Amino acid sequence: MREGSLEPPVRHPIAWQDPDFYDMAKIEAEMHRVFDICHGCRRCFNLCDSFPRLFDLVDASPDEVAGVDTKDYKQVVDACTLCDLCFMTKCPYVPPHEWALDFPHLMLRYRAAELKAGKEDKIGAQFTETDRNGKAAGLMAPLANAMVENGLARAVLENVAHVDREAYLPKFHGRTLVLRAAENRPEVNRDAPAYGRKAVLYATCFANYNNPEIGTAAQAVLARNGVETEVVYPRCCGMPHLERGDVARVAEHAVTVADALLPYVAEGYDVIALVPSCALMLKFEWPLILPNDARIKTLSDATFDVAEYVVDIARREGLAPGLAALPGGIAVHIACHSRAQNMGQKAAEMLKLIPEADLAVIERCSGHGGSWGIFKGNFQTALKVGKPVARQAIASGKAFVASECPLAGEHIVQGMERLDAAKTPEHAWHPIQLFARAYGLN
Fold it and tell me: Residues in domain Cysteine-rich (predicted)?
């Protein structure tokens, strides 16, 4: 038997339509098998809090994994953020190795079984309704944003919804990215080397409702480089539902979004996702959930992460002139869901295209983990997991801090504040915003 696999990791489709997928006895048996292998390896001890929790349970057991009570498995499941880094970057026993470990999707399966059995946090589930929440909060954006910063309101939110009062929460905008794009279409540079390209920007719920500036920056950069763009947002990619194990709901979202984007693909448009979690869903998770749907495969093949797309332009046609240096340099965090796309450090590659680029690249988990890091009981752990990232960002001494994941970026800033407030920037940037700034576009 080989010690580990030298081949690229291969993921099996998620068998969510098979009744055995939800059989808790079979799930626990598979968890016992996987946990026994993980206990003997321990390469993932510093990725997230799932593995320390697992190893603590095993070390406290009188009979290693066999002595761990199956009811304690939930502690391990609850700490998994589905970042996929153990599968993509650490585990030597993923398929095609005969042991065929897929730790994140096993945690997903456990959550799906709990959800099917009616065991769920009904209050926490409301945070996964990003479209409903974004539309409602956008209608009263000034009030919603004021409440986010009000200590009394945050105390109530903590008591009612278990959202830690200290955790960063994004603001909302009444003028969504879709509205802004319709009102202000940047002029396409016909002299750019890449003129003739067409791309549809999948706005994502975060860029549409919480940070439209990411999308407007991307549109401006692409227009400068000759790319005609459209902004489309049919609905959320479903990542929040995936986090809670509602795979059927994700499949529903996938079909709706694919139906909206594929007509553009048929007309020669590329698809660009503005946030890495959403790019990961379109490229990798959706094809595993709906492996026999040709529409999903076609969309997956046409999808780019935004930094990946800019780098592709630079390599194939060359960029339009006009980039200028950003004094002070950039500390850029490579988000977990970017790394899980197996495309390399595209945000860093893009920022290196800026003249006199002065980068500090940080490739480690921020600790935030999607919505996981905002909840009471998780927030302090999220800060602990992200502390090495915050420390590296401070030590870099750069003027800008950037992350492809907007929530991770602000979480890093919060971690920096706790280490050295004097060396902490006011906020974090998305790399495409800094690239637009280097072009003088914002």
Answer: 200-283, 330-406
